[in-house]
């Protein structure tokens, strides 16, 4: 998509001083097999494009949770899938027309993605029995890692193909997102009570293992206690570090592999996806361990998720 060689030639910085010589020599020897991107975007412009979606993702975190609780978690999740999918379909045309248009499209896509995390938590609270919630929530969150893994590998293969090219990435994933949002409309339900095909035994099992009635009126949010809570700020700092690392591997890491280490696009997609393999494996493993520790009352419930989060995301 981006012509790195054109960017490098237009940059006054000595490229040999900031790149890997061995990989650069190898890539020059095999330059006939590489497909150059069509956009001459400097690192600053690429930073704005990549960062715009992350800013949008940050903006809708709290509104997404409020919308899920007050209106519908199902509808919030569907919008969180449909909006980014639609933006994916528009992205190639935006890139061809204007950088600013592309930045706006990416920002809106990020806003759509930001609706999903909090809404997923609301839906999980409605559906998952408390004794199974730890492992099942981890599997849900691990879907992010698995998606990044599969998406990275598929993106590298599609971009390096002379038949499909980089626009196919946006069309394929955008189309799949539209199909999936339609699927969610028909097969996702707000709560067990609203599922038309749930059995009596399944409904009884879920409802009898809920810690409270989530459909009733909830007490007001204790904002003063939250904003004066030391654990709240500790968890906020930890999550900020987690988000920083995740965004690095999604956006900055592939750029580094391509522009500094000069890996071809297909290898770039594969190598950029490797960290998510370990993250997915550790997420499920640590969740199982925490469940075992809770079951045998070896540790209290509170510190386990915090410790598990540190182990998985620091790794």
TrEMBL record:
Q: Which residues cross the membrane?
A: 71-93, 99-128, 135-157, 169-189, 243-265, 271-293
Q: Which InterPro entries match?
A: MFS, MFS_dom, MFS_Na/Anion_cotransporter, MFS_trans_sf
- In terms of superkingdom, the source organism counts as Eukaryota
Q: Under the GO molecular function aspect, what terms does this record hold?
A: transmembrane transporter activity
Q: Name one GO biological process term.
A: monoatomic anion transport
Record has DNA-binding as a keyword: no
For the Major facilitator superfamily (MFS) profile domain, which residue ranges apply?
Answer: 1-315
Q: Which UniProt keywords apply?
A: Membrane, Transmembrane, Transmembrane helix
Q: How does it sit in the membrane?
A: Multi-pass membrane protein
What are the GO cellular component annotations?
Answer: membrane
Q: Does the keyword Transmembrane helix apply?
A: yes
Instruction: Check the record and name the PROSITE patterns matching this protein.
Output: MFS
The compartments listed are:
Membrane
Instruction: Write down what this protein is called.
Output: Putative inorganic phosphate cotransporter like protein
Taxonomic lineage per UniProt?
Answer: Eukaryota, Metazoa, Ecdysozoa, Arthropoda, Chelicerata
């Amino acid at each position: 998509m981006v012509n790195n060689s054109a960017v490098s030639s237009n940059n006054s910085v000595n490229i040999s001083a900031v790149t890997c010589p061995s990989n650069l020599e190898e890539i020059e020897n095999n330059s006939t097999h590489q497909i150059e991107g069509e956009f001459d975007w400097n690192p600053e412009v690429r930073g704005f494009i990549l960062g715009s979606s992350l800013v949008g993702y940050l903006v809708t975190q709290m509104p997404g949770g409020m919308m899920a609780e007050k209106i519908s978690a199902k509808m919030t999740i569907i919008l969180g899938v449909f909006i980014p999918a639609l933006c994916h379909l528009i992205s190639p045309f935006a890139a061809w027309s204007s950088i600013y248009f592309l930045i706006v499209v990416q920002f809106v896509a990020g806003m759509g993605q930001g609706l999903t995390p909090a809404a997923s938590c609301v839906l999980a609270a409605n559906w998952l029995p408390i004794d199974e919630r730890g492992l099942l929530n981890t599997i849900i969150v691990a879907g992010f890692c698995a998606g990044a893994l599969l998406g990275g590998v598929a993106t590298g293969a599609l971009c390096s193909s002379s038949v499909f090219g980089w626009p196919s990435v946006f069309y394929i994933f955008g189309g799949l997102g539209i199909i999936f949002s339609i699927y969610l409309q028909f097969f996702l339900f707000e709560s067990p009570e609203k599922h038309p095909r749930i059995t009596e035994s399944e409904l009884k099992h879920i409802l009898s293992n809920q810690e409270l009635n989530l459909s009733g009126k909830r007490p007001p949010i204790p904002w003063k206690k939250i904003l004066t809570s030391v654990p709240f700020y500790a968890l906020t700092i930890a999550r900020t570090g987690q988000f920083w690392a995740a965004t690095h591997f999604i956006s900055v890491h592939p750029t580094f592999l391509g522009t500094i280490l000069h890996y071809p696009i297909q290898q770039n997609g594969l190598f950029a996806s490797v960290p998510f393999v370990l993250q997915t494996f550790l997420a499920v493993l640590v969740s199982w361990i925490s469940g075992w520790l809770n079951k045998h009352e070896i540790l209290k419930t509170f510190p386990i998720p915090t410790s598990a989060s540190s182990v998985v995301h620091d790794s």
